[in-house]
Design goal:
It is built from ten helices and seven strands. The chain has 281 residues and is α/β, with parallel strands linked by helices. The longest helix is centred in the middle third of the chain and has 29 residues. The mean pLDDT is 95. The structure holds NADP nicotinamide-adenine-dinucleotide phosphate.
């Protein structure tokens, strides 16, 4: 059991803190007494989350809104972050956007946008935050990947590719940084009940705006956030959360019986797609 008191005096920067998993992680870290930097694009949503974090026990909170897709804004945010509440102890790279379109139905610029937000921008934040952690010989970088970063998921071509890339980068960093004092943690969520499905991009880049039955029937964000915060404080390096038996079997089959898995995943995705479209009418 990890003592949450280990968060007192720690500065935690959470991207994508304005909703879903990031919001739940912020609240959980606040209960442990962490000082929080909350990022996302929507300032009003961040203000709501910050107020809830203060009520939950966070000593200090700061808002740092920016768009991950904007390289200049991202660089400015990384420069500013350590001056807000002191040196950053934990960065939770959680912000991301999903997809609901096949590869051929996804416009090339939409594919690139998802790759940029879900991978390139994450790598850029790592590049900018890591030197200070290495210099202090302490810190934790925690990436929220996905089950789609373990097994390519239907109708999520760039999302699956980006989450695989993120997982690969974090495995590389872990090996490169052995003995540095910096912890590199990857979390792979299964389905979690958030707005990820409604915010997912259609092939033309507009929000898909529909409820995915898998996400709607997924795990509650609060216990998922508890596991994530515990992972940041423990010796864990690769953590699967919101993984039911079906999810575990899917990842196993994708490795050991990939053709069978592809056919099962295709059938399941077609059924989910029909249900989503029925819900849209
Ligand atoms: N829910 C699931 O089933 C599931 C499963 C596996 C992995 N995940 C991963 O979990 C993470 C959180 O997703 P969620 O489920 O909590 O969905 P969500 O409620 O849609 O949250 C996504 C967060 O990312 C932020 N974000 C999106 N695009 C951004 C951009 N361009 N710049 C800055 N911030 C941006 C959003 O903030 P603003 O809108 O304010 O910008 C929001 O706070 C994502 O990386 C997702 O891939 C989710």
């Amino acid at each position: 059991m990890i003592a949450m008191t280990r968060l007192v005096g720690k500065v935690v920067w959470i991207t994508g803190a304005s909703s879903g998993i990031g919001e739940a992680v912020a609240l959980e870290a606040a209960r442990g007494g962490a000082a929080l930097i909350l990022s996302g694009r929507r300032r009003d949503a961040l203000e709501r989350v910050a107020a809830a974090c203060v009520a939950a026990g966070s000593a200090r909170t700061a808002l740092l809104p920016f768009d991950l897709a904007d390289a200049q804004a991202r660089a400015a945010a990384c420069d500013l972050a350590p001056s807000l509440l002191g040196p950053i102890d934990i960065v939770v790279l959680n912000a991301g956007v999903s997809q609901r379109a096949t590869f051929l139905d996804t416009a090339p610029e939409v594919f690139d946008r998802v790759m940029h937000v879900d991978f390139t921008a994450q790598a850029d934040i790592v590049r900018r935050c890591l030197p200070a952690m290495v210099a202090r010989r302490s810190g934790c970088l925690l990436a929220i990947a996905s089950v789609a970063g373990l097994a390519g998921a239907p109708r999520r071509p760039a999302y699956s590719a980006a989450k695989h890339a993120l997982a690969g980068l974090f495995q590389n960093l872990r090996a490169d940084l052995v003995g540095s004092g910096v912890r590199i943690v990857t979390v792979y969520p299964g389905f979690v009940r958030t707005a990820v499905d409604r915010n997912a991009l259609a092939g033309d880049g507009t929000p898909a705006g529909v409820e995915d039955p898998d996400v709607a029937g997924g795990f509650d964000p609060a216990p998922v956030a508890r596991r994530i915060v515990r992972a940041a404080l423990s010796g864990a390096v690769e953590v699967r959360v919101a993984f039911d038996v079906r999810m575990r079997l899917g990842v196993f089959l994708s490795r050991h019986a990939p053709a069978l898995w592809a056919s099962l995943a295709h059938r399941h995705a077609e059924a989910a797609w029909l249900a989503e479209r029925a819900g849209r009418r």
